[in-house]
Amino acid sequence: MKKFRNLLVIPRPALLSQFFLVMKLTIALLLISCLHVSAEGFSQSRITLRLESVTLKKALSSIEKKSSFRFLYNEKLVSEAPRISVEANEEEVLSVVQRILSRTGLSYQLMANNLVVLKTSGNLLADVTVNGRVTNASGEGLSGVTVTIKGTANATSTNSTGNFTITAPENATLVFSYVGMETREVPVNNRTSIDISLQPATSELAQVVVVGYGTQRKVDVTGSVANVKGEELAKQPAPNPISSLQGKVAGVQITNSGAPGASPDIRIRGVGTLYGSQTPLYVVDGVWYDDISFLNPGDIENLSILKDASSESIYGVRAANGVVLITTKKGRRGRAVVTYTGMVGYQHPTNQIKMADGSQYATLINELRGNTNLDPAQFGAGTDWYGQVLRDALITNHQISVSGGSERSTYSLSLGYFHQDGIVKTNSYDRFTVRLQNDFQIFNPLKIGYTITGMASKSKDIPGGIFRELYTAAPIVPVYYEDGSYGDPSDYDLGDGANYNPQATLDFYNKKSKNYRMTGNVFAELVIAKHFTF
Q: Which residue has the higher pLDDT, 425 or 217?
């Protein structure tokens, strides 16, 4: 029994020791494996970064903020490095670091816990001077092509013959870009000469504009059609959209009288006729008009001017003076969008003629008539008729619109108010506009819709010869006498040429104008056989 007891007791501690040793080794191996995977995962983390001409120290600091990496370096080495420009989008951190250090003469070594140590490198990439020529598909040199070193802000452009020169690292990539052409990227690969040809970007030439017959490719009608977006017109504080075209369209002359609410004169390619009307034809959403003063500039989506005979021919003789095509805004599918546009300003008389004061005028009258009936000293400064009648005038415009729609219908409603005071006292103009538009998709091939525009305006007018009176009225005549009656030029024997009291003319002139107008159109559009629209 004693021998049996020894056989059971003696081996037990040895087995337990071996078991615990195996467990410890297994746990250690698992822990090392997990740490290895975790470290490898961190080292492959990605960042998005965009830096332009910053110091190397700031670039490294930006990477530290966006990742788990930390940098250890000699301050002197970093301070002497050139400025950095880099752009990365979800790129590995170490790849970005390699690009940043490629032209600094520095390299790096990755240590434990994502610590990156910077040190000097003997493998600095050399810069090469690259010369070349950029041509189009027919072999002609392209002027103004932008040549950029990819990932940096360093760039140049081609000269009039298409030649360029740029200094870049031997492993850099050059990016060639030009309006209307496809962008190309070409590796340098330590070359000193690179000649390339750019192909047209056909998508840029596929833009369309509205013309008399419908729509055409922009490249086909650039010379005969001028196109202006509605937002460009709305930026100008003008009651009439034609006034907002001044300075925006070549070959179109626009003259404004400056009177509140007055429609401007427009001439397309000069005077078309000597005897008839010189006003162009206006076509708003397919409807012909002779005047568009009823239209709020904020309601315009697009405006096109047809200049040549081929684009105007569909409208016949009425298009002899040119055609102005206007497309108004429509609702878009989606939730309701409310838009408010407002403007407040003032107008100030400028370049006024310097007039004689009372004493100077009396002296001139005495010299003219050879007598001394008028005593210049008694008149002093006299009456400043321009200052009496003219003023700084208020101008304001407000518009609010609501638009939206569903899968089968869209809507747009706008309300507008415009007020303009004239620089002549008592002169003013007020206009109220309303516009309602609806489109309905009855079924897939058929769409119908309507547009209704209403306008109501009122103005307080001034006599047509008021500015002549301001110029000729005598400054020795007072505006009012002490008893409150108007100053009478006949009391001073000045003759017929100066027989005016402009203030009395304005006060006794009582002409008011009112104008009401409602226009609209209804349309139906049917798609036939997929490629035809009736």
A: 425
Among left, alpha and beta (phi > 0; psi -120 to 50; other), residue 6 is alpha
**Mean pLDDT over the full length of the chain:** 80
| Residue 379 to residue 363: CA distance in whole angstroms | 10
C-alpha pair distances (Å), 118 with each of 79, 101, 208, 458: 13, 9, 56, 78
Q: Nearest CA to 71 among 79, 80, 81, 63?
A: 63
pLDDT at 40: 39
Secondary structure of residue 382 in the 3-state scheme = coil
| CA atoms within 13 A of residue 86's CA, in its CB half-sphere | 27
Between β-strands 281-284 and 323-328, what pairing exists: parallel, antiparallel or unpaired? parallel
In 403-485, where does DSSP find H-type helix? 466-472
pLDDT range class, residue 102, cuts 50, 70, 90: confident
Tally of CB atoms within 10 A around 113: 9
Q: pLDDT tier at 465 (50, 70, 90 boundaries)?
A: confident
Extended beta strands in 138-241, E state: 146-149, 155-157, 163-169, 173-177, 184-187, 193-197, 208-211, 214-217, 225-229
Q: Which residues pair with 153 in a beta bridge?
A: none
Residues 42/68, Cβ–Cβ less than 8 Å = yes
- Residue/partner pairs of 439-447 with CB below 8 Å, 24 or more apart: 439/330, 439/331, 439/405, 439/409, 439/410, 439/411, 440/408, 440/409, 441/407, 441/408, 441/409, 444/527, 445/526, 445/527, 445/528, 446/524, 446/525, 446/526, 446/527, 447/524, 447/525
Token representation of residue 228: 């202006």
Give the CA distances from residue 450 to residues 101, 419, 432, 477, 488, in Å, rounded to whole numbers and listed in that order.
Answer: 65, 29, 21, 60, 59
User: Cα separations (Å) of 282 from 40, 295, 315, 401?
Assistant: 71, 11, 11, 24
- Pick the closest to residue 207 from 197, 217, 192, 195 (CA basis): 217
The predicted pLDDT at position 206 comes to 45
Rounded to 5 degrees, what are φ and ψ at 531?
-115, 5
- Quick one: tokens of 138? 């027919």
Give the burial class of 176: count Cβ atoms within 10 A of its Cβ; 0-12 exposed, 13-18 middle, 19 or more buried: buried
pTM score, whole prediction:
0.56
CB of 331 closer than 8 Å to CB of 388: no
**Distance between CA 319 and CA 427 in Å, rounded?**
35
* Contact present, 217 and 207 (Cβ < 8 Å): yes
